[in-house]
Amino acid sequence: MNAELNPDAVITATGITKRYGKHTALDNVSFTIGAGRIVGLVGPNGSGKTTTLKAILGLTPFEGGLSVLGRDPRTERELLMNDVCFIADVAILPKWLKVKDAIDFVAGVHPRFDRARAEQYIATTKLTPNMKVAAMSKGMVVQLHLALVMAIDAKLLVLDEPTLGLDILYRKQFYQNLLEDYFDEQKTIVITTHQIEEVEHILSDLMFIENGRIVLAASMDEVGERYAEVMVEPQFVAVASALGPISQRTVFGKSVMLFDRADRTQLATFGEVRTPSVADLFVATMKGQPQ
Length: 291
Ligand SMILES: Nc1ncnc2c1ncn2[C@@H]1O[C@H](COP(=O)(O)OP(=O)(O)OP(=O)(O)O)[C@@H](O)[C@H]1O
What we know:
Layout: E1 11-20, E2 23-33, E3 38-42, H1 49-56, E4 63-68, H2 77-80, E5 84-88, H3 99-109, H4 115-123, H5 138-150, E6 156-160, H6 168-182, E7 188-192, H7 196-199, E8 205-210, E9 213-219, H8 220-226, E10 227-232, H9 237-241, E11 247-251, E12 254-260, H10 264-268, E13 271-274, H11 278-287
Parallel strand pairs: 3-7, 3-8, 5-6, 6-7
Antiparallel strand pairs: 1-2, 1-4, 8-9, 10-12, 10-13, 11-12
């Protein structure tokens, strides 16, 4: 995720700062996202996720450098939008909207929309052209949304809490379909969500943001190499603790410690070692940050 190493980056941010009055929402943020990546931007409420996405989409002014698909979103937003698709919250389609109106609308506003592709996808569902959003189950709304999104040949898909308000089955379905029917190596997806557990299996990269700063940016492979969680046997708790785990918790009476860049061979002598879940890593990382 290093800018210098990746000249073909889809997004390169160098020192982005965004202030709302006296409040600094983004504080000198730098990161790089390459093509074919699925990046999870994860952070607590108010940490700057939406502000980052707005900067990428050219929806807010800011200081610093930002290149998205080779363009500056501040000055070339219109051209950029030919190659970018943005979804915020699938649960907000208006109730009166019919399937066919939704297709007409997107066909009218997006130059890369392939109507036939959307209709083909809809034909595989229970949706019919005259059905209104009001008459759809939440899962059907998701399918409509997906049909619209997947028919747009965008290079960059930006998803801001896309499954808010949906139950677990439909959230899973959304991500599964996204991965199976939409994603390919020419595309890049940036996604923010609070439901990390549900997206972690589709992510290729993680970015943790806290108080407007990126506190972790790594590929999932790097995360797997760098972090280890150990279920420490009681007799080794003191010695393991002395190695300085970034977090320590108790599960069913056993001490679970999370280590950053520790020697795995040594850790294995304390108990069972595994890669932490993104959610546990997130909690541990946030605890270590100054508030
Ligand atoms: N239009 C605005 N005017 C003033 N302050 C704002 C504005 N938009 C965002 N902020 C502030 O900037 C900070 C970052 O907000 P942002 O919406 O990016 O957070 P977020 O990580 O997306 O949060 P959430 O998970 O709650 O959606 C917050 O402190 C927020 O109050």
